[in-house]
Amino acid sequence: MLIQVKLDKTTENSILFLYKDLLKHFKTQGWWPLLRFSEEKVNPTNRGKYTGYHPNNYDIPENQDDAFEIMVGAILTQNTSWVNAEKALNNLHNNQMLSLEKLEVISAETLAELIRSSGYYNQKAKKIKNLVSFLNKNPISLLNQLAIKDLREKLLAIKGVGPETADSIILYALKQPIFVVDAYTKRLLGRLGVIKQTESYDHVQTLFHQTLPQETALFNEYHALIVQQCVHFCTAKPKCEKCLFRDSCPKKILIKPKKKRVLKKSAKNETIHKKK
DNA sequence: GCCCAGGAGCCCG
DNA sequence: CGGGCTCATGGG
């Protein structure tokens, strides 16, 4: 039996119960996906599938190559589906270019061609080059010694690394506890009535930080679960009829179930209720 | 053809 | 400080 978000009046409790609901429904997600866990890399018939997840293994990333791949992936997936980003990542790997050393010497133009599938490839090529030169000056071993606040500040100074990418790097590549907010987070919590969708990144992040224990694994799963929920159900055009929050969500789009008996001709299957 | 996808920078009031 | 524009491929 799911605990319904609406039962709790306070924002804090909503955030706690939302996590429990999502986890119960979707189970652990095993983020961040890595190519070495992906079957597509070794099995061409699996094209289109992305299986690089590693549920319940929180030792990942376990080396600097893992961490580097996550950082590059974080840039490649900016405002882009993971499918397209992963293709670009795969392309880099297959051309033996997915390393700090190789990306240091490759030209932005050549790099752009390799990551074409991820979209915005000219911009992203420059961003990756910026990340690489940053890492050459600030090795991962050094970054790991910084306080989260200082680490975030350094990452944000990289041109092409904004709040979400910086926090993704901190949480998923460096395994430090910081909550990643994205468009999905605002959309889901906005529709559920927990926050206003127009709230700023920092506001929403602070809310999560104040509500949850500062645990890397928890932040990891929560963000991944929000993505899972939003990719499949709380999409731009939401699929409320199969959503686990279909009974409690104030913004749900009600779709009348098809009945076996003949409806009146005026009745349509899709009736949209909009509250304003 | 249209809409959307795990954003960020820049410019402008 | 917030809103609007640009960047761009690939899938539904």
Shape: globular
DSSP summary: helix tally: 12
Percentage of residues in helical conformation = 40-55%
Report the mean per-residue pLDDT as an integer.
89
Order of helices and strands: HHHHHHHHHHHH
Percent range for β-strand residues: under 5%
List the uncertain runs. 256-276
Number of strands: 0
Question: What does the main sheet amount to?
Answer: none
Rounded to the nearest angstrom, the distance between the terminal CA atoms is 31 Å
**Helix/strand-derived class?**
mainly alpha
Rg calculated over all Cα atoms = 21 Å
Q: How would you describe what is shown here?
A:
It contains twelve helices and no strands. It has helices at residues 11-26, 64-76, 82-94, 100-105, 108-114, 121-137, 140-143, 148-156, 163-173, 183-191, 201-211, 216-232. The longest helix has 17 residues, at 121-137. The chain binds a DNA duplex (13 and 12 nucleotides) through helix 3, helix 6, helix 9 and helix 12.
Secondary-structure map with pairings?
Layout: H1 11-26, H2 64-76, H3 82-94, H4 100-105, H5 108-114, H6 121-137, H7 140-143, H8 148-156, H9 163-173, H10 183-191, H11 201-211, H12 216-232
Helix pairs in contact: 1-11, 1-12, 2-3, 2-6, 2-9, 5-6, 8-9, 10-12
The protein binds a DNA duplex (13 and 12 nucleotides) through residues 48, 74-75, 77-85, 87-88, 116-124, 127, 159-165, 168, 180, 182-184, 198, 200, 223-224, 226-227, 230-231, 235-237.
